[in-house]
Amino acid sequence: MRTALTVARGFVPVTLVMTVYNSAPELPELLASIGRLPVLPSEITFTDLGSTDGTVDMLRAWMPPSRIPVRVITSPGASKAVGRNLAIESSYFDHIAVTDGQVWLHPEWLARMWAELSAGNDVIAGKIQPVGSTLLERTIGRIQTPDPGEMESASILPSSRSIAFTKTRWDAVGGYPEWLRHGQDEAFARALRSSGSSVRFAPGAQSSWRPGPSLVGYLRACLRVSRAEGAAGIVSAGPALRVAAYASGLATLLLFPRSALCKFIATAAWAAHLGPQQRRVWRSRSGSPDPLPARALATVAVVLGADAAWFVGYPIGLLERWNGQERTHERHRDESGVSTGAAASTNRSAPGRHRVLP
């Protein structure tokens, strides 16, 4: 049986969960940031995904502030979705705050998240501040992080680097999607929005995040995520704009080079595709150490690279989805002797732990 936990003064009834993997270089800053929180979670759960750099030893040796109960789960080879689900399943409290091993928290982060949760909001998204020591790091971080003014939009999916919700909401959508190896955050956030959960942005709940320094690593991540989106059959406005921009551009260049209408359509499509990123460049100009032209050009270059990764990964994912449905059809035919149509289709709209698909 579980021992009942009491909530002491200076604590809130929240379980802080996160996954870590070879996070030894980043852990000291993260753990120190937890120690600086004036309002503390009542328990903390880490899931290690198979670190080999001493991460688990560092976590077990850590002395948490005010002797917060700390649980370290080891699950070598697990995905982030599995790791987060394991941590949330083991939590004592109904309110869950999620962050990541590459993030460090600002002092008011948990207090602001809890203020919104206790007010009855379903899902709380914190403000993530990307940081970097190079132009490339800062560009990748800006591309991946919406501006505060964008966060209230229904098209923006809250990141699990800084999110809070109730266990009830998590369970209602089946948890994080364990059948996806990559892109689980986006699928989980999309499921929360689709379930009718209200997403509240808490700008005072700030955290900092350092993206990886490698362009190759970022493009590989884009390839993996786009492949996962294709396998899940996810269709959203972003990919649609991307396809429209390239299709109209190629049509204008190759088929209708003199058509004013085609040029107008292509320009509008490219403005819609690149416009949001360039607006972020403009809005953040005052606090950046990089010249505005360099930032604008770097943004275009990184976006084009990510587009190339998407055009490779997404069709591969769609093909994998189609092959999976065909195998399901064959299995149903073998079992019943007839094709069962809708029964043979693979429903990947609900992403949860208890809906793991073959």
Plain-language structure description:
With 358 residues, the protein is α/β, with parallel strands linked by helices. It folds into 2 domains: 203 residues, Spore Coat Polysaccharide Biosynthesis Protein SpsA, Chain A, CATH 3.90.550; 137 residues, no CATH class. 47% of the residues lie in helices and 16% in strands. The protein has an 8-stranded mixed beta sheet. Strand 2, helix 2 and strand 3 form a beta-alpha-beta unit. The protein starts with 10 loop residues before the first strand and ends in a 22-residue tail after the last helix. The C terminus is likely disordered.
Give the percentage of residues in beta strands.
15-25%
Order of helices and strands: EHEHEHEEHEHEHHEHHHH
Radius of gyration, taken over Cα atoms and rounded to an integer in Å:
22 Å
Structural class: alpha/beta
The figure for the number of domains is 2
Low-confidence blocks of residues: 337-358
Shape: globular
CATH class of the largest domain: Alpha Beta
Quaternary state of this entry equals single chain
- Average pLDDT: 83
Helix content: 40-55%
Distance between the termini: 33 Å
Quick overview of this protein structure:
With 358 residues, this protein is of the alpha/beta class. Helix content is 47%, strand content 16%.
Keywords:
2 domains; 11 helices; 16% strand; alpha/beta; 358 residues
Topology, pairings included?
Elements: E1 11-20, H1 27-35, E2 40-48, H2 55-61, E3 70-74, H3 80-89, E4 95-99, E5 103-105, H4 109-118, E6 123-130, H5 135-144, E7 162-166, H6 167-172, H7 184-194, E8 199-209, H8 215-232, H9 237-255, H10 260-283, H11 292-336
Parallel strand pairs: 1-2, 1-4, 2-3, 6-8
Antiparallel strand pairs: 4-7, 5-8, 6-7
